Amino acid sequence: MGGNGARKLRELSAADSLKRLAGAQYGRIVYSRRGLPIIRPVNHIVEADAIVVRAHLGASLLRGDGQVVAYEADDFDEHTRRGWSVIVTGVARVVVDPEQVQRYETLLDPWINLPMDHVIRIETEIVTGLELVEDGAGPDIPPAPRQDPAPRPIDDRR
User: Fold this and answer.
1) Distance of alpha carbon 125 from the chain centroid
2) Alpha carbon 25 to its chain's center
3) Under 8 Å CB-to-CB from 116, ≥6 apart: which residues?
4) Do 128 and 143 touch, CB atoms closer than 8 A?
5) Listed residue (99, 95, 101, 75) closest to 86, CA to CA
6) Residue 124 to residue 18: CA distance in whole angstroms
7) Which of 123, 149, 130 is nearest to 76 (CA)?
8) What mean pLDDT do residues 41-54 have?
9) Residue 41 CB neighbours (<10 A)
10) Which of 48, 58, 61 minimizes the C-alpha distance to 88?
11) Whole-angstrom Cα distance, residue 29 to residue 89?
12) Cβ-based neighbour number of residue 39 at 10 Å
């Protein structure tokens, strides 16, 4: 049952998950093209309960027109075997308000040297997070109490 250094999983609350996500420098956006998943690394910011990213022309397949997407970020230490992973599922929309676009372009410094043609805001519908914690001699660590409301159905007709 588990080797040396085995860890237990602890569920993170939605609020703690979003805090960890806000502290991460980058993550991976997952979207669909012709029914198949596409995964791209991007940097992001977290604002309220939304994740905001900038996309370049090559990622224009990410439509941002109400498409359901997932966003994942994590931080693991291979030496201590501790870390966390957060996944957010929600609806992606292109930000069109010029003032918001300018503000997000200032806050989001792309890591690649390609023209960024749009800003995408992911409104969170489902937030899940897990943390690897030490498997001490004590009892299992119970899951953190859920603080997020029941997931709303995703309306992809928008």
Assistant:
1) 11
2) 11
3) 54, 55, 56, 105, 110
4) no
5) 75
6) 10
7) 130
8) 91
9) 11
10) 48
11) 10
12) 10
**What are residue 21's phi and psi, to 5 degrees?**
-60, -40
Between the CA atoms of 63, 17, 103 and 52, what dihedral angle is there, to the nearest 10 degrees? -10
Q: What's the predicted TM-score (pTM) here?
A: 0.77
Is residue 12 pLDDT above 50, yes or no? yes
Question: Could you read off the pLDDT of 97-153 as tens digits, one per residue?
Answer: 999 988 988 888 777 666 667 889 999 999 999 999 887 633 344 544 444 444 555
Give the integer Cα–Cα distance in Å for 130 and 119.
28
Mind listing the pLDDT tens digit for each residue in 96-112? 899 998 898 888 877 76
Non-local (6+) Cβ contacts of 113 within 8 A are none
CA distances from 90 to 15, 32, 66 (A): 16, 13, 9
108 sits in which H/E element: none
Q: Can you read off the two tokens belonging to residue 2? A: 């588990």
